[in-house]
Amino acid sequence: MAHDSSHAETEHYHPSWKEYKWVALWLTLITVAEVWFYYIPAFVASSAFVPTLLVLSAVKFAVVVMFYMHLKYDHKLFRALFTGPLIIAVLTLLALLMLFSKFGGK
Amino acid sequence: MTVASAAATASGAHEAHEHTHYTTTGLDNRKIAIWAFIGSECMLFASLISTYLIYKGRSVVGPFPHTPWTNPATGQVMKPILNIPITSASTFTLLMSSLAMVLALAAVENKDKPLPPNAGLGDRMLASSKLWLWGTCLLRATFLGFQAYEFTSFVHEGLTIKTNLFGSTFFTLTGFHGAHVTAGVIWLGTLLAIDYKRGLGPKDALNVDIAALYWHFVDVVWIAIFTLLYLIPD
Question: What's the predicted TM-score (pTM) here?
Answer without folding.
Answer: 0.85
